[in-house]
Amino acid sequence: MVEQEIYLNNMFHALADSTRRDILARVGRMEQSIGDLARAYSMSFAAIAKHIDVLVRAQLVRKQRRGKYQVVSLNPEAVGAAQEHLERYAMNWNQRFDQLEHILTSYHKPAL
Amino acid sequence: MINNATFSVSADKTTLLVERIFPASASQLWQAYADADILRQWFSPRGWVTEVQEHSFEEGGSFIYIMRCVDESQDWFGQTSCGKMEFSNIQPPKSFEYRDVFTDENGVVNEAMPASQTLVTLSEITSSQTMLKVATRYAQSEALQQMLEMGMEEGYGETLEKLENLLKG
Q1: Does A53 have pLDDT greater than 50?
Q2: Which is the most buried residue in A83, B32, B42, B61, by most CB within 10 A?
Q3: Least CA distance to B134: which residue of chain A?
Q4: What is the pTM assigned to this prediction?
Q5: Nearest chain A residue (CA) to B44
Q6: Does the beta carbon of A104 lie under 8 angstroms from any beta carbon of chain B?
């Protein structure tokens, strides 16, 4: 239940920022080190790392350490995960609504 | 399932819509939100129970809840999840809005988590049939659109088609 809400919130939050959308498109074409990204956007390493963390939390990208570099790549499961979470979101609403309908139609329904 | 809800995304791709027709009048359905004792009976998904911490269904009022998973067969068994709905624009028995936020067990809002804004609309079709629409807007604009476009670029077209079909219901 909550997992879907958190997931969707994280995803929408991550995608609400134009720099992060751009980073996502860039790493989608080719994996990039955090240093590469910092140079490309003329930002500090720390500022880019912060954006990357938001994208990682939303499960849109992955971050791996390779030697002295941290490499960022698109999470190939991102869309599948989105689909799965939306399916569960739909299932949760249907479960809630089934319960509501049951209450509304039950013989012992509360005084409405 | 008795009667499935319809899911869709708004034309501007910012809002998830859920719709379902219930065998009740608008004012009966309204009570399902206005009366805490009814609300707690349907608010949780299957296997979870809702404990009402606070419920004040009025302008500026809140519903603060703790949901607990009581189904041993679920991975979530024993876990709790806390939240708060802050009500506004209450127009009985037609519509109201709420801001959905995450809280800790003491009802303190977690501001680090982005909140969503939901508009609930009740449209009475007959005295015993009412359409309930729940429209949830996540963060700012364009996010869903961007996700869909990103997926297209990356060749996830087929998955996205499934996703869009899913969202169409």
Answers
A1: yes
A2: B32
A3: A93
A4: 0.67
A5: A96
A6: yes
